[in-house]
Amino acid sequence: MTEVDVTERALLVTRNFPPLLIELARGWRVSLCGPSGCAALAPEAANVVETPLRPLPRFLLGCAWRAWRMARRERPRLVIAGSGLAAPMAWLAARASRARLVVYLHGLDIIAPSLIYQHLWLPFIRACDQVLVNSENTGRLARERGVAADRISVLHPGTDVPELDSAAGQAFRVKHGLGQRRLLLSVGRFTRRKGLAEFVRRALPAIVVGHPDALLLVIGEEAHDALHGASGSERSRIERLAREARVESHVRFLGCCDEATLHAAYQAADCHVFPVLDLPGDVEGFGMVAVESAAHGLRTVAFAVGGVPDAVDAGRTGDLVAPGDYSAFAEAVVAQLGLPPSAERLSTCRRFAEGKSWERFGERLRTILSAS
After folding, report:
1. Apex CA 349: angle with CA 82 and CA 108, to 5°?
2. What is the phi/psi pair of residue 334, to 5°?
């Protein structure tokens, strides 16, 4: 594994707290300029300066000023923007210290449907010396918007690969009165892009015909702060369409769950469904839940949109279906539910997830940064 000089300093400028900082700290002396509360999550040795996150204009201006001051004082050799939104702030800090400038793009932050963002933020993204992208699709979007191809490197997000406990899955079924029903699992916040309402209306009825005991378990909550949040409740929309399709008894909402419950749900389920929509101006940057599902030995059926193909090894950790083909989606789920348990399939899923673990993420991050 290629290592970088741990005596050199790097500054991360970000609106959220990405695990990127944890892995960066394994090869660099790190500083963080981020939102209030991030210091509690940062490595002990990291120098952290916080800025109140809301309102957003105040955060952007305050973080830009604090990042510039940190760069002037610490003279980092590397400045990283945790997302496209942080690119102007990171650019200012890099100019102050004559540092190399890197940005990590996640999909939506390159195509955000805002004229202000497109005109004011994209030039700073194009000016970066290195552009990390979370999927091949995000890389394609970046090239289409003028980012030089030779500056782009794919860096898939990492995942934890937990120890499995079959008893936890059985206990989950007992606790929720699920018996031996065939369980579909959906995990994530309720947004239009996730496609759950359309799945319930257009695919679940056919799945129920094939497996009358099938039950869709939904773990998540409303995405009230989503950039593309629709008016009204997405959960109410899902429930209404389930009633209209006469499958309401085959859908159950569990709300937000703690980590232990989520791990148990993955192990109790028979198939993870990820019916993401291909929407103009919106994009699924990677598809982290598909990798998390694989880490628990659970296969995924998903539409091949956005960065999702990077998160599913088609035919091995799940099935990728042409966008909008709900008949094919239902057929793939029915086939998956009809398969007997298999240690080989479980092991295949886990090996795939191990290849995208946080350890591998860190190794690739340090290799990319040291090679540039």
Report:
1. 25
2. -60, -45
CA pair distance 207, 209, nearest whole angstrom:
5
* Mean pLDDT of the region 181-204: 95
Considering all CA atoms of the chain, what is the largest pairwise distance in Å, rounded to the nearest integer?
A: 66
The residue type at 53? L
Domain with residue 238: its CATH number is 3.40.50.2000
Instruction: Look at residues 294, 318, 273, 296 and name the one whose alpha carbon lies nearest to residue 168.
Output: 296
CA angle (108 as vertex; 223, 330 as ends), nearest 5: 65
Report whether pLDDT(1) > 50. no
d(CA 80, CA 20): 10
Alpha-carbon gap, residue 87 to 302, rounded angstroms: 32
Q: Give the C-alpha separation, 339 to 315, whole Å.
A: 14
What is the C-alpha to C-alpha distance for residues 288 and 281, in angstroms, rounded to an integer? Answer: 20
Q: Are residues 150 and 31 in the same domain?
A: yes
> Hey, what are 36's tokens?
């209030």
pLDDT of residue 279: 87
Per-residue pLDDT at 2 exceeds 80: no
- Asked if 270 and 184 touch (Cβ cutoff 8 Å), the reply is yes
What's the pTM?
0.91
The range of the structural domain enclosing residue 54 comes to: 9-158+357-371
> 243 and 105 share a domain?
no
